[in-house]
Amino acid sequence: MANFSTDKSGISANRHAVAAGFLGWTLDAFDFFVVVFLFDTLAHQFGVTKKDIVLTTTATLAMRPIGALLFGLLADRYGRRVPLMVNVIYFSVIELLCGFAPNFTTFLILRALFGIGMGGEWGVGASLAMEAAPKKLRGILSGILQSGYSIGYLLAAVAYRFALPAWGWRSMFWLGAVPALLALYIRTKVPESEAWKQHRAGSIREILRTLLQNWPRFTYLVILMTFMMFLSHGTQDLFPDFLKEIHAITPKVVANIAIFYNIGAVVGAVIFGFASQALGRRKGMMAALTLSLVTIPFWAFGHGVYGLACAAFVMQMGVQGAWGVIPVHLNEMSADAARGLMSGLAYQFGILLASPTNSIQYMLRDHIGYQWAISSFEIVTIVTLTVLLFAGTEQHNKDFTHT
Question: 368-388 pLDDT, tens per residue?
Answer without folding.
Answer: 999 999 999 999 999 999 999
